[in-house]
Design brief:
heterodimer, A: 459 residues, alpha/beta, five-stranded parallel sheet, 19 helices, 16 strands, globular, B: 294 residues, seven-stranded antiparallel sheet, 10 helices
C-alpha cells in the first residue's frame, strides 16, 4: 500500500543565487528521496499516467522497480519506450501529461513522475549498460538533424544493425537541446553530451557542419552517397516576428538568436568570443517555454527582465515549473498585455515598447479564450532590449531542395503516423512535421520512423 | 576540424586562406558564403566564398582582420586548422539560374570595393566559363590595398581600377568611374552587381539608378547560425523583412533599406570594441590611463 506522505520536495538552488549563475536550478532526487517518492505511487490497475504519456512509458512498472531499489530494472522499463529519460524528466510538461492524470493529484499532489524519471535517467548516464549490437546489416541510413527526433531514430536503427550517419547543420550535436534549452534547465556536459555519447557507443556516426539542402541534399544522399533511406528530423528553427512597427530596431531580437548566442555560443562566458547584449531592461514577448528560457537568461546576464503575454496566466503554454522558477527568480509578469509598436531613439536603438491592455473574450479554435484589446488602454514599458518568443516554424530549405517532398501550407513536411513522407525512402518526424512541439513527441516520432524504416528496408 | 591548405597576405590586414572542404567545394555556386569558426571558443563568422575548386576539394576565403574573430581567422596558416567551416550558405547569384542565351545577351558590370573584390571573382569567373562577358571595376583606398587584380584580369572582359588617392588607375571613387564609363566612354550595361562596404553599395545603387541600370548587391549582415534560425541578419527589402542568410545574400539593390542595414551592422559594436581592447591589452600588457602606475 502506498505511503500517505506528502510529495517529496526536490532540492533546488536558492533563487537569489541561481538568478546570477547558469548552473542547473534543480538538483533532482537522491536514492533515498526517490525511493520515498516512489512509495507514494498507488500502482493503479488502469494507470491513467501511461495513457497520458505521449510515448506510453510503463510508469507504475518502473516506479515499482524503484520501490524495490532496482534502478537498473527501472531504467530498462523506461528504455523500452523512451530513449532520452534524463532529458524528458527535465523538460516534459508533466503537469499536462503523466502527472496531470495521476489519481493522487485529484485530492492532493500527484507522484513526481518527472523527477523519478530524471533520477533513473541520470543513473543510466552514470552507469552505462553495455548493449549487445547485432552484426551490421550493411544498409545505410542518413538522419538529418541531431535533435531529439534524430537521436531517437538513430539509436533505434543502430540497435537493429543499420549503419547510421547523423548530419547536423550547426557545429555541435544536439539540436534544440544545445542551442535552445539553457544550461540552467538542461546541463550540456552532464546530460546532453552523455546522452549523445550513448548514441555514439551504438556505432552511430555524427557529421557536424553539414547543412542538408545546401552542403548536400536528400537527393544526393540517396543517389550519390549510397544511403538506402533518409530520416528528416530537422526541427522547427525559423523564428516568427510580430510584424509590428520598430521590429528591426537595434535591440530587437528573436529568442532563437538570444538563446543561440547564450547556449550554443556560450556568450555568457567571457572566454568565448560571441557577443550578447541585454542592456538594463529586457522585455520578452511570449508565454511559452522559450519565452521563459529567454527571460531567465536575460536575468542571469544582469538585466531587469519582464514577460509580456497577451493572454492571462492560466493560458501560459510554458511548463508550470518554469513559470514558478521564473517568478522565484524575480521575473516580472505582465499578463493580458500585447505589444503594438516598438519605440526607438533617433539612432535606431530600442527605448521602449508600446502595449495595449487585453481582456479575455470567447474561446478560439485552440479552446483558449481569445484576448481582445481594451480600447484606449495604450501604455509604454521602457526597455532597451525586446526579445520575440512567438514560436517557430520548420526551415523550408530541405523541402525546397528535395524532389517530390510534399509540405503543408505552413511549411511542415507531410508524413503519416509512421513518418513516411510523399517520397519513398524518405521519412520525417518531430517538429519538422508537426511544427514546434515537445522533446518527447519528437523522440516518439523518431522511434516510430525507425521502425518504419526497418520495415521499408526489409520489404 | 578543417585543414588549412595555404594562406597568403594579399594587402595589409587582408589574407587569403584556402581550406580543404570537399563537400562545400562540390556544392558551391557564385554568390554563396560560408561560416567559419576559428577555434572552440570562436564566433561563427560569415565570409563570402572567394573561390572553390571541386577537383581539389578546396574553398578559398578572403578575410580582413578587423575584430577579435577575424584576427583569429587570419592568424591561422597552412598546417593549422579551423574548428569549423560550414556551407555553402545563402542563395546562389540569380544569373546561375538564367538561360545562357539570355545571359550572353546581357552586359554585366561588377563594382567591387576593398575586400568585397574577392566574392566578385567567382561570379565573373563563372560567367567567363559560360562564355558570358563581364566588365569589372575594382576600387580601393590606395594602390597597396587593391586585391585580386591579376586574377580578375584573367576572367573580366575589361578591368577598371579606381583608387581614392589616384595611386593606381582612375583617381576617385568607384561611383565616379562607373558614371564616367557610362557617360563619357559610351559603355552600355544591362546589369550592375556591387559588392563591398555597405556605404559603397548604397552609393553605387544611387549611381545605377541615375541610368536606370538594374543593380544587385550582396549584403554582409550580422549572423549567428547562417541557416535561417536566428534572424540577426534581418534586412528590409521592398518594405518587407527578409533574412540575408536564406533569402539573400544578394538582393535587388533598389529595394534595400541601406540605412537600416548599416545601423543593424553596428548592433554589437560596443562589445566588439571592448573585446578588441581586452585582446590588445592581453597582448601588450596593461597601460594605466589614470596614473596608478606612477
Amino acid at each position: 500500500m502506498a505511503n500517505k506522505i506528502p510529495r517529496v520536495p526536490v532540492r533546488e538552488q536558492d533563487p537569489a543565487v541561481r538568478a546570477t549563475n547558469f548552473e542547473e536550478v534543480c538538483y533532482g532526487y537522491n536514492l533515498e528521496e526517490a525511493s520515498l517518492e516512489a512509495s507514494r505511487c498507488l500502482n493503479c490497475k488502469n494507470p491513467r499516467c501511461v495513457a497520458a504519456c505521449p510515448v506510453g512509458i510503463q510508469i507504475p512498472h518502473f516506479i515499482e522497480a524503484l520501490k524495490g531499489g532496482d534502478i537498473k530494472g527501472a531504467a530498462e522499463i523506461i528504455g523500452h519506450d523512451s530513449s532520452l529519460p534524463s532529458i524528458c524528466g527535465r523538460v516534459c510538461p508533466q503537469e499536462s501529461q503523466c502527472e496531470g492524470s495521476c489519481i493522487l493529484g485529484i485530492k492532493g499532489e500527484s507522484v513526481a513522475i518527472g523527477k523519478l524519471e530524471r533520477f533513473v535517467g541520470d543513473w543510466r548516464l552514470e552507469n552505462p549498460q553495455s548493449v549487445e549490437l547485432p552484426a551490421t546489416n550493411g544498409r545505410r541510413v542518413a538522419i538529418v538533424g541531431s535533435g531529439p527526433a534524430g537521436l531517437a531514430c538513430a539509436s533505434d536503427l543502430a540497435k537493429l544493425g543499420y549503419d547510421v550517419t547523423v548530419f547536423e547543420a550547426l557545429h555541435e550535436v544536439g539540436g534544440v537541446l544545445v542551442y535552445g534549452i539553457p544550461e540552467f534547465r538542461l546541463p550540456k556536459k552532464a546530460v546532453v553530451a552523455k546522452e549523445i555519447d550513448s548514441v555514439r557507443r551504438l556505432g552511430v556516426k555524427f557529421e557536424t557542419d553539414v547543412i542538408v539542402g545546401r552542403t548536400v541534399t536528400v537527393d544526393s544522399l540517396l543517389d550519390d552517397e549510397g544511403f538506402d533511406a533518409v530520416f528528416v528530423g530537422s526541427g522547427a528553427g525559423l523564428p516568427r516576428f510580430m510584424g509590428v512597427e520598430g521590429e528591426n530596431l537595434n535591440g530587437v531580437l528573436s529568442a532563437n538568436e538570444f538563446l543561440t548566442r547564450a547556449n550554443l555560443m556560450r556568450a555568457y562566458d567571457d572566454n568565448y568570443d560571441t557577443p550578447i547584449y541585454v542592456g538594463k531592461r529586457v522585455v520578452v514577448v511570449g508565454g511559452g517555454n522559450v519565452a521563459m528560457d529567454a527571460v531567465r537568461t536575460a536575468k542571469r546576464l544582469g538585466a531587469d527582465a519582464t514577460i509580456v503575454y497577451r493572454r492571462s496566466e492560466k493560458e501560459l503554454p510554458a511548463r508550470v515549473e518554469e513559470v514558478h522558477h521564473a517568478k522565484e527568480e524575480g521575473i516580472e509578469f505582465r499578463m493580458l498585455t500585447n505589444p503594438t509598436r516598438i519605440l526607438g531613439d533617433d539612432k535606431g536603438w530600442v527605448t521602449g515598447i508600446n502595449c495595449v491592455q487585453m481582456e479575455l473574450g470567447e474561446p478560439d479554435a485552440s479552446g483558449r479564450r481569445s484576448p481582445v484589446e481594451v480600447a484606449g488602454s495604450d501604455f509604454e514599458i521602457a526597455c532597451d532590449v525586446v526579445i520575440m518568443a512567438l514560436g517557430t516554424s520548420p526551415n523550408p530549405l530541405i523541402a525546397s531542395t528535395t524532389t517530390n517532398l510534399e509540405t503543408t501550407r505552413r511549411g511542415c513536411i507531410v508524413a503519416d503516423d509512421e513518418g513516411q513522407t510523399s517520397r519513398p525512402g524518405v521519412f520525417a518526424g518531430g517538429d519538422a512535421v508537426t511544427g514546434a512541439a515537445t522533446v518527447i513527441l519528437a523522440m516518439g516520432a523518431g522511434r516510430k520512423a525507425a521502425a518504419a524504416i526497418d520495415k521499408y528496408l526489409k520489404r | 576540424m578543417v585543414e588549412i591548405l595555404s594562406r597568403e597576405l594579399l594587402a595589409e590586414g587582408i589574407w587569403q586562406t584556402k581550406v580543404l572542404a570537399p563537400r562545400i567545394a562540390k556544392s558551391a555556386k557564385p554568390g554563396q558564403f560560408i561560416i567559419v569558426r576559428a577555434d572552440e571558443k570562436g564566433e561563427r563568422v560569415p565570409l563570402t566564398i572567394a573561390d572553390y575548386d571541386a577537383a581539389e576539394g578546396s574553398v578559398t576565403m578572403v578575410t580582413q582582420a578587423l575584430g577579435v574573430s577575424t584576427r583569429k581567422i587570419v592568424a591561422k596558416g597552412a598546417a593549422d586548422s579551423f574548428a569549423d567551416v560550414a556551407g555553402p550558405l545563402g542563395r546562389p547569384s540569380d544569373f546561375v539560374h538564367e538561360s545562357l542565351e539570355e545571359l550572353k545577351s546581357k552586359r554585366f558590370i561588377f563594382v567591387a570595393g576593398g575586400v568585397g573584390t574577392a566574392p566578385v571573382y567567382p561570379q565573373v569567373k563563372w560567367l567567363k566559363e559560360h562564355g558570358v562577358e563581364a566588365d569589372v571595376i575594382i576600387g580601393a583606398k590606395t594602390k597597396d590595398m587593391l586585391i585580386y587584380t591579376e586574377k580578375m584580369r584573367a576572367v573580366a572582359s575589361n578591368l577598371y581600377i579606381a583608387t581614392d588617392d589616384g595611386s593606381e588607375g582612375f583617381h576617385g571613387l568607384v561611383t565616379a568611374l562607373l558614371e564616367k564609363l557610362i557617360t563619357e566612354d559610351g559603355k552600355q550595361y544591362d546589369c550592375c552587381v556591387a559588392i563591398g562596404p555597405m556605404i559603397m553599395m548604397k552609393f553605387v545603387t544611387m549611381t545605377a539608378k541615375k541610368f536606370d541600370l538594374p543593380c544587385i548587391v550582396s549584403l554582409n549582415a550580422l549572423m549567428v547560425d547562417g541557416t535561417g534560425m536566428c534572424g540577426a541578419c534581418r534586412v528590409t527589402i521592398g518594405g518587407k523583412t527578409k533574412f540575408t542568410c536564406v533569402d539573400g545574400p544578394e538582393f535587388n539593390a533598389y529595394e534595400v533599406d541601406f540605412d537600416e542595414a548599416m545601423r543593424r551592422q553596428g548592433m554589437y559594436r560596443t562589445q566588439e570594441q571592448r573585446a578588441l581592447a581586452i585582446e590588445k591589452e592581453r597582448a601588450e600588457g596593461h597601460k594605466c590611463n589614470i596614473g596608478l602606475d606612477k
